[in-house]
Amino acid sequence: MNSSPAGVRPIAIIGGTGPAGTGLALRWGRAGETIIIGSRDEQRAQQAAAAVRQRIGPQANVSGMENSAACAAADILMLTVPFEGQAALLKELKPAMTAGSIVIDATVPLASGVGGRASRTLGVWQGSAAQQAAELVPKEVSVVAAFHNVSADLLATDAPLDCDVIVCSDDPDAAQLTRELAAKIPGVRALDGGKLENARIVEQITALLVGMNIRHKGHAGIRITGLPPSAYR
Amino acid sequence: MNSSPAGVRPIAIIGGTGPAGTGLALRWGRAGETIIIGSRDEQRAQQAAAAVRQRIGPQANVSGMENSAACAAADILMLTVPFEGQAALLKELKPAMTAGSIVIDATVPLASGVGGRASRTLGVWQGSAAQQAAELVPKEVSVVAAFHNVSADLLATDAPLDCDVIVCSDDPDAAQLTRELAAKIPGVRALDGGKLENARIVEQITALLVGMNIRHKGHAGIRITGLPPSAYR
Questions:
Q1: What is the C-alpha to C-alpha distance for residues A142 and A175, in angstroms, rounded to an integer?
Q2: Rounded CA separation B86/B178 (Å)
Q3: B215 to chain A: which residues are within 8 Å by CB?
């Protein structure tokens, strides 16, 4: 599995009408990627796509589809859904996933999903939401965990970000492709976070950042320091 | 409990002869703090203190004592011990701790402590090594979790660091004192990480950084971005 020139492999952003999904659509659409925003509701997906197109301009290649159709039309599937909907959605989409697809999972098992605090996480039996995802997709589909620690609010603005994206996966090629996509977002550096099992740490960092956001009314992100330049991206 | 002018309250660095302990002794000693390096072996403590004094110069106020004596001579106790020794040492030191003391715990429950990988953590029943510490100290002693993500190797150099220190505690005054101490290290910004329970996340970040250090031969640290200036210390 090799990375292709920008725009050749469409990216479906599943559950993509929220700030994280539309923010990624905006950033990647600007970078020349072909984006399909997916939603349970086709019309909402098309409205979100139209809004993103308007912000990018006439060169934008951003469309909207119902989630399953988006899934079937792309082999890079970016998942931006709340944890409480992740497992059911993946079960539903499984038949639409083509062999060789990549699922990039940004799900964080925040306790707010079950009425708790967004500054706490739930324990996931498999170790992390990303590992749960890996159990639910077809065998020939790779799961990559990434983008958990990027502020959705800042992603949806036009300003460069000040944040690193830690990428965890058991598939090195899928991880590399994801790091390349992350690095297309202005201000973002991408880092190898190791195996998918490490997603448990990266997911939990989000809860820590949420707590800081609540205390300080901010949009916290993280940077990793102290590594050689070759480590970034 | 209020913070005192530099040097008035001695800081005992328990298990302080390793790179993290001597690095903190060096940085705080330079900032004018009174430091007692503690060790199981009084002579090793005194040797480590002499080496630190030599690096700081004649104004240094750094001595060495056996751990229990160090503990009795100070009410700020900085714990820099491997996880596998933490519980036993705290039980041993408990009688020497004075009411109103602060234990600053930097323990990370790395799996390497039981022969596993330093890029993985062990589950701690209480949630984190810091919460285990809180269970083992006298009731009148506050526990603060901090300094987990600072590279011990870089701490032991003379260069400014490029790292934030996330401070977690259920005692706001003890947390503030710890943030003030952290901010005395050149290059370090201190941040409120919330309650002590959040130490579980901060401790695990270290395992993630260790993995990055192994992959990239680096000395990884973290910075938190996106918060207002008032959030930093």
A1: 9
A2: 20
A3: 192, 194, 231
Of the candidates B2, B223, B202, B129, which has an alpha carbon nearest to the alpha carbon of residue A205? B202
Contact B198 A119 (CB under 8 A): yes
What confidence score (pLDDT) does residue B3 get? Answer: 47
Percentages (nearest 5) of helix, strand, coil residues in chain A: 40, 20, 35
Q: What is the dihedral of CA B30, B97, B15, B24, to 10 degrees?
A: -20
Which residues of chain A make contact with B223, given a CB cutoff of 8 A? 222-225
- ipTM score of complex: 0.94
Cα separations in angstroms, B30 against B44, B53, B155, B159: 21, 9, 12, 13
Inform me whether the C-beta atom of residue A166 falls under 8 Å from chain B C-beta atoms: yes
Can you tell me the mean pLDDT for A75-90? 97
- Helix (H) / strand (E) element for B174: namely helix B172-183
What residues of chain A lie within 8 A of the CB of B151, using their CB?
226
From the list A191, A221, A223, the residue facing B212 with the nearest CB is A191
- Of the candidates A227, A184, A191, the one whose C-alpha atom is nearest the C-alpha of residue A11 is A184
Nearest residue in chain B measured CA to CA from A230 = B216
A172 interfaces chain B, CB cutoff of 8 Å: no
Torsion, Cα of A58, A61, A65, A71 (10° steps): -170
pLDDT band for position B8 (cuts 50, 70, 90): confident
Which chain B residues are within 8 Å of A216, Cβ to Cβ?
227-228, 230-231
Burial A181-192 (b: 16+ CB within 10 A, else e): bbeebeebbbbb
**Strand-pair category, B76-79 with B163-169:** unpaired
Structure tokens at A152: 């959705």
Q: Does residue A60 contact residue A52 with C-beta atoms inside 8 Å?
A: yes
Amino acid symbol at B46: Q
Secondary structure of residue A111 in the 3-state scheme: helix
Instruction: Tally helices (H) and strands (E) across chain B.
Output: 8, 9
User: pTM value?
Assistant: 0.95
> Of the candidates A205, A216, A214, which has an alpha carbon nearest to the alpha carbon of residue A150?
A205
CB B228 within 8 Å of CB A216: yes
